[in-house]
Every structure is written in structure tokens, then in C-alpha cells.
Amino acid sequence: MKTKSDIQQEALDALIKVRKGSVAMSVGTGKTLVGLKHMDMHYTDTSFFLVVAPKKSIFQSWIDDAKKFDLEYLLDRITFSTYLSLPKQALHYDVVYLDEAFALTPQMMGALLPTLSARPNPQLWYTSSAPMSSSRVLHQIVERGRSDNSGRMFFAEWANPDGVDVGDVDAWYRANPALGIRISEGFVRSELDALGELSNEFARERLGVPDPLPSVDAKAAKIPELAWARTLTNRPPVLGVGEITISFDVSRGGEYASVAVAAGSISAPYVEVIEHREGTGWLASRLVELVERWEPTAVGCNGAGPTGAAVGPVLAAFRDAGISADLLHQVNTVDYKQACGGFFADVIEGRLSRPDNQGPLDVAAADAAERQLGDAWAWDLRSSVVPISPLVAVTIARALLPVAAVVSPQVFAY
Question: How far apart are CA 211 and CA 209, in angstroms?
């Protein structure tokens, strides 16, 4: 039986021969260490590496493994980025590692690949457990890797076929070379018992069986790609004190929060996402800072959605800072439907403008679908595969704008 080290060495022996590849390995098989050893093989005095993952918490395993296996010197040459921040990266890197590549979207790949073309002989590596149903990019990579037309791409996979019995212990060993060494059969059994009816997630994460892609009738994105591209402006307005609105929103599971501003008027709105971070602990204090700095005409949120849990801490922070609670507008369902419809109309008809390099907003706009609410609709949180809080935030910020633009009175000094 192959050991965990044997599996890692097998992957490394193949990786060193090619410049682009995919490594599909189950939990606990050492994907992170394979990546670090691959960096070590290609290290020079001018090497720079980029590691991309869905969440910042994943980066700690790279740091811990580098220290544990005497590869800490690599950390000075590694830049860590989340997928949502990827469009902001300069991408002057020799090797890019896309960790947990099941989170990749076509829009993220579209932002990444053209910039890599400027580097001489760049390398691009995907490491991941099996694809989710939403992992369109990784599904394509797996399909190509399994075919006879993979070209120069290296593809390694430790997995099981569709329909495998999740209780088959031999199947556990096929996809988990660390089983019996660092992971016990009892531990894997407890995972399966804990998941209960969610055995498909056990099959994907532990046995390497991909979730199927959604059917062709899955919800499509609401905003046309070309119409969204036309909203870009190279001349964003200068934001003035007392001339903007602010809005905030929290993603469905509470993993991310976003803050946006809007300026101009309802007939010629400008929107911009100014914060998009993990968690919500930072949100209330940041809103206080923004209110004190910009004196917005209104601060808004959708109090009926996931953001409702953040309203209490925000109001408490406002009270402590001496900010009136009346400044916060919690839009109701009717107002929110009108806001979504108005935002969409402004995109389609060319009235809305936004700046470039708004990665989280671009990703959200490319994914968000509509959810019917009576005769109207709103952004559908349930069908989204990426956080759409940036899009919800700019939607509400725009809705709070006045009919005519607010212009601060000029002050003349003699």
C-alpha cells in the first residue's frame, strides 16, 4: 500500500515535468505540502509565488507546513490572496497555486489568465478536493485531465468512481493515502456518521467523487455581461462630504460583509464598493468611521435579510459615537424590490457608472440571479455560488440617492 509520502512524491515527480497541472486529492493527503515542495524545486533568487484560496484561514496551513518542514524561507516570496481579491493582484509571479480550486469561477479565471501572459514561462497549478456542483471551472479541468486530449497539462487524481458505496472501507483507502497513518478508520467513520443524510458531501470531500453539474435549467445570471462592462468609467467623480449615501450588506452565511457608496442622483448614479472583508466584527466600527468622515445623507441596509443580525451592533456603535439612529434606513421588501429593479434598469439603459478594479462586485454581478417576489423580483441569495453582498450593497446605496445630485455650497473667502 502506498503511503502518504509516496503519493506526494508521485505527484511531485510528475509536476516537475510540466508547466500547468491539476492535483485532485482528498482531505488529509498533503496538497499544501506538495505545493510547498514544488516551490522549493523551482526556487531561485528572483522567484515569486502566489497562493490563492477561498478564505484567508486556509493560508495558515501553508504557513504552518512551511515552518514544520523547514521551508520557512519560502514565506518571504509567497503572496496570499483570496479568490475575490484576485483581480486586484499585480500578478508578477512565476508560479500561481490555486488552492481549493472548486471555488474558482469563470470570471476569476478571466481576470487571471490574460495577466499571466506577460510573464515568461509562468506556471499555473490547481489543487483541490473534488468539484462541487457549482465548480464549473474545476469540472472542465477534471474532464480535460481525464481525457486523451490534455495536451501539456499534468493531471493527478486520487478518487473513486461515481456511485461508490460510501461505507466501503477500501474506497476510503483509495482516496486517502494518509488513512491508517495519520487518519484512523474510526475518525473517517465518525465523519460519515456525523454527516448522516449528507453522504454526497462525504463522497465529494473524503472519497473524491465530484458533485454533478446543475441541469441546464439552472438559474442564469440576471445582468448581461456586455451591459455590465459598459458601466465602467475611467473618470469616477470626486466624492464630497455630505454628497454620498452608504450601504452595507452581509452574505447569506455571514462569511463576508460589504460596504458601498453611491453618489450623484437617482437618474445618474455612481456606485463603488469600498470594503469587502471576511466576517462582520469589523463592520460597525468601520461604518462609524465612514459616517464621521463623509457625513452621508443616509446609511442603508436590507433589514429583512441576513444583514438584520448586524443592525443591532451598528445602532449601538452609532449611539456610542453620538450618531443619530435616524440616519440608518432599513429598507423593507417593497423598497428592496424597487431598488433591485431600478439598479438593473440603470445598468441596461446605461445610466449607472462604476470604477474599475472592483473584483468582488464584478464576481457578484456575473453570478447573481433573480428571485421572483410577487410581480417583482430581488437578487437571489439562495442560488448564488459566490457572495453577492457587494452587489446588494451598491443596489441599496443607489436607491437612497436623491432625485437631484447633492452639491455642497461653495465657500468663498476674501
Answer: 7
